[in-house]
Amino acid sequence: MRTNTRIGWMAALAVAAMVAVAPARANAAEPLLSQGVGSSSCARLAGDIKPGDGLNDPVNLMLYAWVQGYISAANVALLEYDGRYVNMADLTVSNVLQMVQDYCKSHPDKKPAQALDAYLKTTKKGKAQWTTGTVEWDE
Questions:
Q1: Which residues contact 67 (CB under 8 A, 6 or more apart)?
Q2: Which residues of 79-98 are buried (b: 16+ CB within 10 A; e: fewer)?
Q3: Which of 7, 44, 59, 86 lies 20 to 30 A from 92 at CA?
Q4: Structural domain boundaries of the chain?
């Protein structure tokens, strides 16, 4: 868990650094920083995603980090529900950026979270040995 937290902080710092050194793209990234990638509109986000720039682009970096967190949370829910999970190894930078951009271009009235929900419904899931109720968030 400490590794995931450390990666999260590193991603946040990288986003902040990229926004600071990329003023032209910072204008596109600023609303996403305050509003959140997942709650932005597909109509707005589709044009801001630059798959060819990979994680060098601040919008791409924010989107990829957000997707990793969203799918990780979904995996906890899936494991608790019936011991299934999504293998995140398939969620490469290029796959994620293209998947969300394609969805958003086809569904400008939707939100990126709906792209991931569609992915979660249709993607292959693995089976794990999991004891339901092992996630204890309440004291």
A1: 91, 96, 100, 116
A2: beeeeebbeeeebeeeebbe
A3: 44
A4: 2-127
Tell me the CB-side half-sphere exposure of residue 26, using CA atoms within 13 A.
9
Report the pLDDT value the prediction gives residue 3, as an integer from 0 to 100.
46
How much is the pTM?
A: 0.74
Q: Which residue has the tokens 């204890």?
A: 136
With CA atoms as reference, report the closest residue to 56 among 3, 94, 91, 82: 94
Tokens of 1: 């868990």
3-state helix, strand, coil in the chain (%, to 5): 70, 5, 25
The span from the first CA to the last CA of the chain, in angstroms, equals 19
Condensed to tens digits (0 to 9), the pLDDT of residues 59-71 reads 999 999 999 999 9
Give the Å distances, CA to CA, from 75 to 68, 110, 134, 138: 10, 23, 14, 19
